[in-house]
Amino acid sequence: MEKKKVVVGMSGGVDSSVAAWLLKEQGYDVIGVTMQIWQDEDTASMEENGGCCGLSAVEDARRVAAKLGIPYYVMNFKQEFKKQVMDYFVDEYIHGRTPNPCIACNRYVKWESLLRRSLEIGADYIATGHYARIKELSNGRLTLRTSATSSKDQTYALYNLTQEQLKRTLMPVGNFHKDEIRAMAELIGLKIAKKPDSQDICFVPDKDYASFIERSTGKKSVPGNFVASDGRVLGQHKGIINYTVGQRKGLGIALGYPVFVLKICPETNEVVLGSSEESMSRYVRADRLNFMSVPKLTGEQRVWAKIRYNHKGAWCTVKMTGEDEILCEFEQPQRAVTPGQAVVLYDKEYVLGGGIIIGDE
To answer: Up-side HSE of residue 183: CA atoms within 13 Å toward CB?
Structure first.
């Protein structure tokens, strides 16, 4: 019987490298691919800044592929990445929202573009080194199940995948703990076994989002007013792209008590500040929905929800309030409900679905 062909997205890191090895061990015909997404043609910049997609990542992935005895290619996705991730990132910040570019990259580049290109070359599946598991439910729907290790679970950043994408995806590391993955890499002699995980947004490695946005748009950020909830002017800010809802540090303003960013208003160029108590809310409204374990939400449902990647999660009741809008009412107030971030809903250990936060009212 002919082996099933799988394209593994290889970042040069330990997780995707071991994913490729596991699939080869399971009898798949494995092809390694690194997605070239870095925009700068300058070699030194690519080497220094590329993160999971720079030149050093390509060299690490190439060495791993050679060690595993699998074919390896670099595919150019620069255009897709710029449009779907970088331009989206800039546009969201300009409009006072705080995006999660990894969610956009997963949905539109790693899955939509890589999957399409992989199917064109005759692959049956794509695979990644994400810590998540794919499960077919009794209703026939495919969904994500949280990984074996809660500290590394990556289902939050994958909630937006479609049924068709899940059907063509393998995630072999989701059943293992990180230390087990590193031990496997050591066992098979991979030099990247102890390589640290990439943490930063790959196209803003210095974490200076405002400077990146200014370079991308060619426009300097315009200062404006810090205001209180009642409209009182409290001081001047450096430009709305420098702030995110929930931010407390780096505001450059002293009011005698801790203050947090409550709201960003691009239409008036104001940043609303308030107390710790004011930064808490029981409500989250979201749109741009994607349901996973169900085709659509019916009635009210009590679910576990996360409102950002590193949020530990909390209980809420969710209901539809429009054709493409949900309202989540949390049992306990949550800090910093941030427009632009995702709210992801869980039914036990399965992803029910999620959407992009539009506010807390």
So the answer is: 5
pLDDT-based confidence at residue 139 (cuts at 50, 70, 90):
very high
Q: How far apart are the first and last CA of the chain?
A: 57
Assess contact for 22 and 16: CB atoms under 8 A: no
Q: Which of 52, 53, 102, 202 is catalytic?
A: 202
The pLDDT > 90 percentage for the chain reads 83
**What pLDDT is stored for residue 47 in this prediction?**
47
Residue 105 annotated among the catalytic residues of the structure: yes
Q: What is the pLDDT of residues 225-268, one digit of tens each?
A: 999 999 999 999 999 999 999 999 999 898 889 999 999 999 99
Within 10 angstroms of residue 314's Cβ, the number of other Cβ atoms is 16
159 neighbors 344 (Cβ within 8 angstroms):
yes
Contact 72, 32 (CB under 8 A): yes
CA distance 32 to 61: 8
Predicted confidence band at 216 (pLDDT cuts at 50, 70, 90)?
Answer: very high
pLDDT of residue 54: 59
Residues 6+ apart with CB under 8 A from 308: 100, 336, 338, 341, 342
pLDDT at 143: 98
User: To the nearest whole number, what is the mean pLDDT of the chain?
Assistant: 92
The residue annotated as part of the active site, out of 105, 265, 316, 328, is 105
In angstroms, the CA 5 to CA 131 distance is 21
CA 354 to chain centre: 13
Measuring CA to CA, which residue among 99, 35, 87 is closest to residue 342? 99
Tokens of 236: 């001047």
DSSP letter for each residue of 106-140: IIIIIIIIHHHHHHHTT-SEEE---SEEEEE-TTS
Residues 126, 6 contacting (CB under 8 angstroms): yes
